[in-house]
Amino acid sequence: HSEVAASYIETQLLKARDQQQQQQQQQPQTSQPSHIQQQQQHQLQMQQLLLQRHAQEQQQQQHQQQQQQQQQQQKQQQQQHQQQQQQQQQQQKQQQQQHQ
């Protein structure tokens, strides 16, 4: 799921860059007022920023999920270890009782 989102973000970033390059190439020929061009470029930059931020957030979420999974695994291992210890103690008690 996250890989799909990451590739989507990459394609969006590439599109935005292409648009910027095209605009820069067109600039000398077009008679558009410079403030309109600046606005368009500004919009593209904002798009890129938002996409980058979105990508970063997803990476952070993935990282958090991995950490949570690791913590859960550690808890499970600790619980198993405790259970094993308890079983061993019970067995020792039983053996002692049998000896008596």
Automatic annotation (TrEMBL):
* Keyword Coiled coil listed: yes
Keywords, A to Z, come to: Coiled coil
Where along the chain is composition biased (Low complexity)? Answer: 19-45
Q: Which organism is it from?
A: Opuntia streptacantha (Prickly pear cactus)
Renumbered to this chain, region (Disordered) spans 1-45
Coiled-coil stretches are 46-98
Q: Which domain of life is it from?
A: Eukaryota
Name of the molecule in the record: Uncharacterized protein
Q: Does the keyword Coiled coil apply?
A: yes
